[in-house]
Structure formats: C-alpha cells, structure tokens
C-alpha cells in the first residue's frame, strides 16, 4: 500500500526500524498511525509501537537517538517526548504480554486501533485480525472484545473521543456495554480520566457528546454533583429545565464563536490561539469553557426561591463559583484551571446585567475585563451561549441580541489588546476615610466592596458620581 510505504519512510518510524534491526527485536507499529494512514489523514501522528523482547533497551536507544525524555505513561507503557521541526512529538512504546501480535491486538480497545505493521519485516502487509479496516471504512467504532471495558474502563470515555475524532458511530453492542459498565469508570486513574474528558470537551459537537455521556451513565459517575440540576424548573424567559439549558449552553458555544468571529474576522488567529491555549496537561481554554458552560448554573438549586409564582435564583453566580471549584478539584484540575472556572461562573451574568442598562460606560466594560482577567474572552462567549440557550420568544429577543452585541464587541476589543486597559477603582480607602471622618476599619472595606458592585453594574460610572454616593453614606446625627 502506498500510504504504508510513506509511513515507513517517516523519520520516526524509520528510526525505530533501524534500532529494531540493530537489536534484532520484533517491533510493530500499531494503533492511530496505522489507522490514520488508511484514512488518508495527512497530519503528524502520535506513534505507538508494541514489542515483547528488549523493551527497556529499545526505548532508551530511541530516546537517545531523538534526544527525547522517557516518562512512564501507563501500565507497561513508556512515552518518549521530544521536539522535531519546532513541534512537540510523542512516541509511545507498549510491552506486549506475549510474543504473538495477534493476541496483543485482540486485547486492544477498538477494532480500528487493532491493526499493525511489522517494522522488523520487509513489505507493507497490514495485520488486521478483527476487521478494523472494514469498520474504519464503514465509520463504525466497535470494541475488540466483550471484556474490553472491564480490562480498562477508561476506554469507555475514549470511545466518545474517537467517535468525534473519526466521525464514527459507536455500534449498538459497544454502546450497550458502555452503559452496562459505566460504574467502572471510577476505578480509572483520575489523571487519565481528566485527559480523556477534556479532550472530549475540546472537540466539536460538545452537546451531543455530553448527552451521550449522560445517557450511558458516565457523566453521573464522573460528576455526581450534577444530579442537583436534573429536572429543576425555571421561569420565563427560560424555556427549558436547568439541566437541558446547561446542555444547550455547551452546544451553543460554537455559535457564540461564529458570532464573535464574524465581528472580528481579522482577529480569528488570536481567537483560535486563545481557545487552544493549554492551561495544564490535556486541558485547553476551549475544554474548560465547555466545562463551565455545563456547570455555569450549578449554584441555582441551593439559591432557589419563589415569589409571586416565579422562581428566582438570587446569588447563584457566587454559589456556583464555590461549587465548581470543588467539582474541578474532584476531576483533578489544578489551581489555575480552578480559578478560571470560578471566574467564568461568577461573572457569567455580568454582560446580561450590562445589557439592561440604558447605556454601557467604557468604565463598566473595562472593569468587567479587569475582574475577569485571562477568562474575559471566555466569559463573553459564555454569555452569548447562555443567552442563546435561554429563550427564543419575542419578549426575550431584544435582550438576547443586546447581550450578543456587547459580548462580541468586548471580544474584539480584548483580542485586539489595544483597548479596554485596566482602570483604577473610582474610590480609594482614603476617600472613604475622609468622607466618614474615620480611621481604618472593617466599615471602610465594606463600603469599598459596595462601591465596586455598583461600579460593576453601571450605577456608578464616574468619580464625581461615586464621591456623591459616598457622601450619602455618611451616618446622620
């Protein structure tokens, strides 16, 4: 096959073949590189090699050859990380349990990944004992055996990632097996689960993936606290239950991105760079934004109240920020990602509040950017997605349009990095002490916090007005 001939000539594969011949060991190229060669995907691969004899020596020899670093990666697996042509490349080496490659392939996750090329033998004959090529042609994702998910529960999450990556459909028996074994996912290492989950959240069709994770029971296993938003009713303009709204918000992130990019097409590179930036291993800003979209209203149930027949959730942003920090820790996210999530949730109503004002001052916009920090663009996208997922009736249409206009304008100006520079607060502690004719104390801090809230919602928009408000706070005799 011509595609396999080109694959054998790839510098990484060629290097492993040379070391294999020198060591006189049997080494097989397996998994994604073989699959993608058959698919005709012309991109750099993460390469996977399987061998039985001389495992440690061959891995060390390859690492020396490419000046890479060897790190333990999984059970009986080593990863070599190195740079080539300015890009970060990985090569994984797996230790086979037996010398028989057929047996090894039968123990793998999915048939499309259970194909191999023998690098120690001439020619380009495909080793395909489970019909992986036929499944690949049919766009079908099928487990290699009935025990596939019991052997490694993480494969259940990987199924949804691969289904999106390869535009495949998970075949019915495989899907039923995921549903039956979903409780086993809690036995997978947290770091491995985090990598797969956030890879799913980064990929397109996020709403469909989240619905499938929910339908199979995996989402409840991974995020048990999400049960509190199931079935929660909301008043108009909301048209859906809280859980349905949350799923739809995640789904509308792509539309939010299209809206903002249509307003700043010349900044698309900056937008892509922002969303693809890595906050930690395996976690991009896009995946974190999707996580926030799913959970942005997680604080609503504990803040629910009813007045005059309407359901209200006053203060749910602050409760949600606290709750999502705990959920982020539970899935293994680090402090930086936790902080970004908390900001996204706590600030997700700010642009809606701005949209209700007769006019939005430049100071209010700058204060929003300052308060959101690195999460500001994400908060704009979340605000748009949230508004799109809320309602479609004529009574909400103008409000939703205004949210989109403000958020898109803010996105463009933030990405341009030449506007909305950080501004100083309207009032200082010295102003408060002068006005109250008092020294330092807790009252000063309380008034500054109140002033900051009024500045955020646009009630105070210049220093003269802020000082007038401050004078009104003086105690009367």
Report on the architecture of this protein.
Helix 10 crosses helix 16 (285-295), helix 14 (253-263) packs across helix 22 (376-388) and helix 16 (285-295) crosses helix 19 (335-346). A hairpin with a 2-residue loop joins strand 4 and strand 5. The chain is built from 26 helices and twelve strands. Strands 3-4-5-2-1-6 form a six-stranded mixed β-sheet. Strands 7-8 form a two-stranded parallel ribbon. It has a two-stranded antiparallel ribbon with strand order 9-10. Residues 418-422 have low confidence and may be disordered. The chain is of the alpha+beta class and 477 residues long. It has four domains: 2-138, Beta Polymerase, domain 2; 139-222, Orthogonal Bundle (Hydrophobic Seed Protein), CATH 1.10.110; 234-416, no CATH class; 429-472, no CATH class. Helices cover 56% and strands 10% of the residues.
List the helices and strands and how they pair.
Elements (H helix, E strand, L loop, with lengths): L1 H7 L2 H13 L3 E4 L1 H8 L7 E5 L3 H12 L2 E6 L2 E8 L2 E9 L5 H6 L9 E3 L13 H6 L2 E2 L6 H4 L2 H13 L2 E2 L1 H10 L8 H13 L3 H10 L2 H5 L19 H10 L1 H11 L4 H9 L1 E3 L2 E2 H11 L4 H4 L1 E3 L2 E3 L3 H15 L4 H12 L3 H6 L6 H11 L3 H13 L5 H23 L12 H8 L5 H15 L6 H10 L5
Parallel strand pairs: 2-5, 7-8
Antiparallel strand pairs: 1-2, 1-6, 3-4, 4-5, 9-10, 11-12
């Amino acid at each position: 096959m011509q595609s396999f001939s080109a694959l054998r000539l790839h510098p990484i594969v060629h290097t492993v073949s040379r070391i294999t011949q020198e060591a006189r060991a049997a080494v097989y190229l397996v998994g994604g590189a073989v699959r993608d060669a058959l698919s005709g995907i012309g991109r750099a691969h993460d390469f996977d090699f399987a061998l039985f004899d001389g495992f440690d020596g061959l891995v060390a020899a390859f690492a020396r050859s490419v000046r890479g670093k060897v790190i333990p990666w999984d059970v009986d697996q080593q990863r070599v990380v190195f740079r080539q042509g300015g890009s970060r490349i990985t090569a994984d080496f797996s230790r086979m349990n037996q010398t028989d490659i057929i047996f090894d392939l039968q123990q793998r996750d999915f048939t499309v990944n259970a194909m191999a090329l023998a690098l120690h033998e001439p020619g380009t004959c495909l080793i395909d004992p489970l019909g992986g090529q036929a499944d690949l042609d049919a766009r079908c994702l099928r487990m290699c055996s009935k025990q596939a998910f019991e052997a490694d529960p993480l494969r259940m999450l990987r199924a949804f990632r691969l289904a999106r990556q390869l535009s495949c459909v998970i075949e019915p028996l495989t899907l039923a097996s995921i549903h039956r074994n979903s409780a086993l996912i809690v036995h997978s290492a947290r770091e491995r689960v985090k990598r797969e989950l956030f890879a799913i959240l980064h990929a397109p069709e996020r709403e469909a993936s989240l619905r499938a994770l929910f339908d199979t029971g995996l989402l409840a296993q991974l995020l048990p606290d999400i049960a509190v938003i199931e079935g929660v009713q909301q008043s108009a303009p909301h048209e859906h239950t809280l859980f349905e709204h949350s799923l739809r918000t995640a789904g509308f992130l792509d539309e939010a991105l299209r809206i903002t990019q249509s307003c700043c097409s010349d900044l698309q590179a900056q937008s892509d760079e922002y969303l693809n930036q890595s906050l930690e291993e395996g976690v991009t800003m896009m995946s974190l934004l999707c996580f926030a979209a799913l959970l942005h209203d997680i604080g609503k149930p504990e803040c629910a109240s009813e007045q005059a027949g309407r359901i209200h959730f006053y203060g749910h942003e602050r409760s949600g920020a606290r709750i999502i920090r705990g959920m982020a820790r539970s899935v293994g996210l680090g402090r930086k990602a936790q902080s970004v999530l908390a900001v996204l949730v706590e600030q997700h109503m700010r642009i809606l509040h701005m949209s209700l004002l007769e006019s939005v001052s430049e100071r209010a916009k700058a204060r929003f950017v300052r308060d959101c920090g690195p999460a500001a663009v994400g908060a704009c996208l979340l605000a748009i997605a949230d508004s799109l997922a809320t309602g479609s009736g004529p009574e909400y249409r103008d409000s939703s349009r205004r949210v989109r206009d403000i958020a898109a304008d803010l996105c463009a100006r933030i990405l341009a990095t030449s506007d909305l520079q950080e501004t100083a607060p309207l009032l200082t502690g010295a102003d408060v002490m002068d006005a109250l004719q008092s020294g330092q104390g807790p009252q000063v801090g309380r008034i500054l916090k109140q002033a900051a809230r009024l500045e955020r919602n646009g009630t105070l928009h210049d220093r003269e007005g802020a000082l007038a408000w401050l004078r009104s706070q003086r105690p009367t005799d």
